[in-house]
Design brief:
Elements: E1 9-12, H1 17-27, E2 33-36, H2 52-67, E3 71-80, H3 101-114, E4 124-134, E5 140-151, E6 167-169, H4 181-185, H5 196-208
Parallel strand pairs: 1-2, 1-3
Antiparallel strand pairs: 3-4, 4-5, 5-6
Length: 210
């Protein structure tokens, strides 16, 4: 398996500032020179996949092909058990063109209320992430991570991004929106690698980094 070494350049295939911040935290210990697709002016490809893995690979391959550099992408979302896995692949789209997750969280809550999902066991959900690292010659490595929890209402906290303020991970009293970056996705010794993205990243790092 091909590995990235300290000093190598890597493109983060995302235009999401929240994801850029999280990946910067995760990648910093590996000494890579990291640039985002947004900073390079790369277009966002159409996500036509039917799985998180397919969409992650589409984004990473587009960035790698356009830049001539290895590229790392993730596709992730919130899967709500009572909503048959929705919003899932469409988690970002529920926030609309403006990426406003306030109405998106309200939409989830409205759907749960319609189903009478008021107790914690009726409000189970999981964050899922698949990372794809793709080289310009199409060699690729993928890794998946997930974290289970319960959806709370009203949302709590202004940290993180997306649906974080309504997601209470199992075994914790703070939502992702209330956690510091180290608590949410920090790697040992700073954190437990709690988030779905951190869990996928640890698998990918073991295979491809350093």
């Amino acid at each position: 398996m091909r590995r990235l070494q300290p000093g190598d350049r890597l493109v983060l295939a995302t235009h999401n500032p929240g994801k850029v911040r999280e990946f910067d935290d995760l990648l910093r210990p590996y000494g890579l020179t990291v640039v985002s697709a947004a900073s390079l002016g790369l277009p966002e490809p159409e996500e036509t996949g039917t799985t998180f893995a397919e969409n992650a690979r589409i984004k990473a391959l587009a960035a790698a092909t356009a830049s001539g550099l290895p590229a790392l992408a993730d596709d992730s979302g919130l899967a709500v058990q009572a909503l048959w896995g929705a919003p899932g692949l469409f988690s970002a789209r529920w926030a609309g063109p403006s990426k406003d997750f306030g109405p998106a969280m309200q939409r989830i809550e409205n759907e749960l209320q319609k189903k009478g999902a008021t107790t914690p066991d009726q409000r189970r959900a999981a964050f899922v992430a698949v990372l794809a690292l793709v080289w310009p010659d199409d060699e690729a490595e993928e890794a998946e991570g997930a974290v289970c929890g319960t959806l709370v209402w009203p949302p709590r906290g202004d940290q993180g991004f997306g649906y974080d303020p309504m997601f209470l991970p199992d075994g914790f009293d703070l939502t992702f929106g209330e956690m510091t970056s180290d608590q949410k996705h920090g790697l040992p010794p700073k954190g437990e690698g709690l988030s779905h993205r951190a869990r996928a990243f640890l698998k990918l790092a073991e295979a491809c980094l350093g």
